[in-house]
Amino acid sequence: MGQKGYQSPARKLLSWVRKQSKKMKILLSIVTAVTLLVTLKLVVHDHNYFFVVAEAIHLIGLLVLIYKLTTLKTCSGLSLKTQVLTAIFLAVRLYCSFLMEADIHTVLDLITLVATLWVIYMMKFKLKSSYMADMDNMPLYYTIVPAAVLAFFVHPNTSHILINRMLWAFCVYLESVSVLPQLRLMQNVQIIEPFSAHYVFALGVARFLGCAHWIIQVYDTAGAYIYLAGRGYFWIPTVFLAEMVQTFILADFCYYYVKSVMSGQLIVRLPTPV
């Protein structure tokens, strides 16, 4: 009987946050983000690990999708267009990585690309009847064209041939907006089942780690890293901005995801757009 009215500390915290004003919620979000950044800076000494972990988390998110597609036999709630955009930027990045790096990032990108292509195949052919084509209504050129135009004008100034430098910039910019069709679909549906929600949350965590790398690098160099010699005057600031944009794009969904998890709900409910 004594346990009937018991609330866990997490639920008490969530209940308190819900009662706060919008400005206070924004302030709490900023404080939380800064706290996480400081913790990462103190705990992780080699900040290049952020990208490795981010790519690994993206792969884990894809494995969650694969589990859903193979066990539940449905792709409802998933954006085929986001998967296509993901395959495009991964293929381009893999090509550039072979030429420029050829390290652990290359291996992770290869595995992630294969997993993404498998998801696309399942959605287009095996589970086509459950695909929400009418809800997945963001045109691909809304993301591909701006990324290509920006890459043409702003790209790294390295010793590699011009087309490869443009391709590298293109995959960076496309990655920053590739999740938009998925978010658009979820906004149309408003109720997100667990596996799709886990996947998008994994993308959010991955992007936060990527963004954390740039913020910490800028902080450690007192801003000098933004204009790193040999990279092109506008290249790194634009990459930094792209990382920030993607992080903020996913931050809103991650808030509702965490809110649902702390409330003990399996389904994420998004607010009705005004």
Automatic annotation (TrEMBL):
Main location: endoplasmic reticulum
Keywords annotated in UniProt: Endoplasmic reticulum, ER-Golgi transport, Membrane, Protein transport, Receptor, Transmembrane, Transmembrane helix, Transport
One term under GO cellular component: endoplasmic reticulum membrane
Top-level division of the source organism's lineage: Eukaryota
Single Gene Ontology MF annotation: ER retention sequence binding
Membrane topology reported for the UniProt record: Multi-pass membrane protein
InterPro entries (UniProt xref): ER_ret_rcpt
Transmembrane segments: 26-44, 50-70, 106-127, 139-155, 197-216, 236-258
Subcellular localization: Endoplasmic reticulum membrane
GO biological process: protein retention in ER lumen; protein transport; vesicle-mediated transport
Entry similarity comment: Belongs to the ERD2 family.
Protein name per UniProt: ER lumen protein retaining receptor
Biological source species: Anisodus tanguticus
